[in-house]
Amino acid sequence: MAQILSSLSDLHLSFLRSSVSASQVSSQLFICFIIKIPWYAAYPEGHAETHLDEDTELEYLKEKVDAGGDFIITQLSYDVDRYLRWLKKVRQKGIRVPIIVGIMPIQTYSSFLRLVKLSGCQVPQHILDALARIRHDDQLVQDYGVKLAVEMIQQLTKEGDIQGFHFCTMNLETSVQRVLELLGWQGIGVSTMKHPSRNPPGNLSTRYPQTKRSSF
C-alpha cells in the first residue's frame, strides 16, 4: 500500500495517507496517534551520535522490527544511490515491513549546512556544487530544493521498494506543497501515487508566498 507521511511544524508528526486531501490532514494525524501505530526509526547513513558499523546498525534495526514494529521511517538523506544500496541490505536481512523515506526539501543554504552538520548525512558533490553557485539567492535555493526533492522521489519510487515518504517541513510547508503538486500527488488516489510523472507539470521557478520562516 502506498503511503505518504508528512510533518507539520517542528513536531515532525506523521500520518498515514491512503487518499487524503489537504483539508483532511488534521483528522488523519489524530487517528494515527489514537491507535498508536508502532514504528521505528532507521539511519541509512548511520546515527550521528554513534559509531556503529552498518552491519551492527542493521542487526539492531531487525531486532526492533522483530519486536513488533509495523513500519520504518528513515532519517533524511540526499544521496539516493547510497540509500538504495542500504535498502537492498535491509531487505537482505529479512526485514519486510514497509519503509517510509525521510524527505526534507532544502530551504536556504545556511539552514541546509546546519542540517547536514547536525544529522551527519553525506551530500553528493554535484548537489554541493549546485548550491554553492546559488547560495546568495534564497529563492533559487528553495526552487532547487523543490526540484531535487521531486527528482529524488521519482528515482526512489522507480528503483526502490518504497512504500511512502515522510516530509519534514520545519514550519515551511510551501515547498512540500510544491513537491506534491509537481508529482501530481495532490488530491489523488493510491494507485497514481506509485508512479509519479517523469515530467511533472508546472514551473519550478514559480514564486510561492512563504508565510513562515524557519528557525532551524
Automatic annotation (TrEMBL):
It comes from the Eukaryota. Residues 193-216 are annotated as: Disordered. InterPro entries: FAD-linked_oxidoreductase-like (IPR029041), Mehydrof_redctse-like (IPR003171). The keyword S-adenosyl-L-methionine does not apply. Pathway: One-carbon metabolism; tetrahydrofolate interconversion. One of its GO terms (cellular component) is cytosol. Residues 200-216 have a biased composition (Polar residues). Signal peptide: none annotated. This is Methylenetetrahydrofolate reductase (NAD(P)H). It comes from Sphagnurus paluster.
